[in-house]
What does this fold into?
Amino acid sequence: MKQGGGGMDRSGGRARHSGDLIAALSGRSLARNLHSDVLWELGLAIVSGTYAQGAILPSDGELLERFGVSRTVLREALKTLAAKGLIEARARIGTRVLPRNRWNLFDADVLAWFFELGPDVSFLRSLAEVRIGIEIEAAALAAERCGPDEAAELVGWVDRMAGSVTPADFARFDLEFHKAVAEASGNPFMASISALVEMALTAAFTISSPVNDPEALAVTVGVHRRIAEAIRDGNADEARLAMRDAISQGFDRAAGRMEAAAST
It folds into this structure.
């Protein structure tokens, strides 16, 4: 993975990064404060390997001097990283970077750090495989459980996707569609993967949006309409197939663009 540009600028504000885009697409505001800036830069440094797995982070004194923040702000940032499984503080040893298998890869910030660095095709494939494992069953459950209003909402999001003018609008409507499928499943655990879906869609649209490609747009809208109509009609098997196709097509489009760029 290549190093990204997610550090703090000289004025103390954070440079624009994928976290901003994710927040914009999901309609959330992105808090900007010293804690979030320190958290972002340290998290990015860990995920990028600047602080390798098993390495000991610089002392609090060094980090305080580097970031120019209070000890309280630094400690809160370190506590947040620990809660995400990235680091562990040990008495008389220091703060150690944990192995990657301890990281919470479903966490929105952790995923954002990977995407900020520029995920490779294998990472995107792993993400797509997890989505397939979860979202196809969410679609099937939605077909069995959703009511007329929820079904109409899904069709409405597809119509908005079809009428999108900008990549940002299309991505936002696509995200809302997938969140609505998860809600319609009636399973609260399905809705908990929203961060995973946000990151996957953000990556796909950052790398290769279908909005400026009429053929790709028609295919993407068409497969989402298949999902919505299968759910509306109570056809769980078709909902599964259509959701698998939607996720696979998104991965293929993004992977193809990445491989084409790498070969030039």
Residues 1-18, 25-30 have pLDDT under 50 and may be disordered. The radius of gyration is 20 Å. The beta strands are 87-90, 94-97. The chain is about 65% helix and 5% strand.
